[in-house]
Amino acid sequence: PSVAEIEDLIRRGGGRLLTLSTIRRPCTILCDPAVQGSFEKDAGVIARFRPIISIHWLLDCISAYTILDRHDYIV
Q: Among 8, 22, 72, 74, which residue is least crowded by beta carbons within 10 Å?
């Protein structure tokens, strides 16, 4: 799905979208494993926002109608 479609799924599920500049505390961020390299270029992002979870976690949670364990989705 496109970024806009993922954002829509998050909002419809009651989630909040934050930008890296507005996050004030450690939290989980989602990323597409296909573009994970762009995150890895910024060590500060990785250190501050662990764990980084594959976007497939969100899609699998929606498919299963439950919140799944994030452990298998850490990138």
A: 22
pLDDT (tens digit, 9 = 90+) per residue, 40-64?
566 566 666 667 788 899 999 999 9
Q: Please calculate the CA angle 14-30-56 and round it to the nearest 5 degrees.
A: 90
Say if CB 49 and CB 30 are below 8 A apart: no
Q: Which has more pLDDT, 35 or 67?
A: 67
The amino acid that residue 34 corresponds to is A
**Cβ contact 20:13 at 8 Å:** no
DSSP, res 73? G
Packing angle between helix 55-64 and helix 3-12, nearest 10 degrees? 50
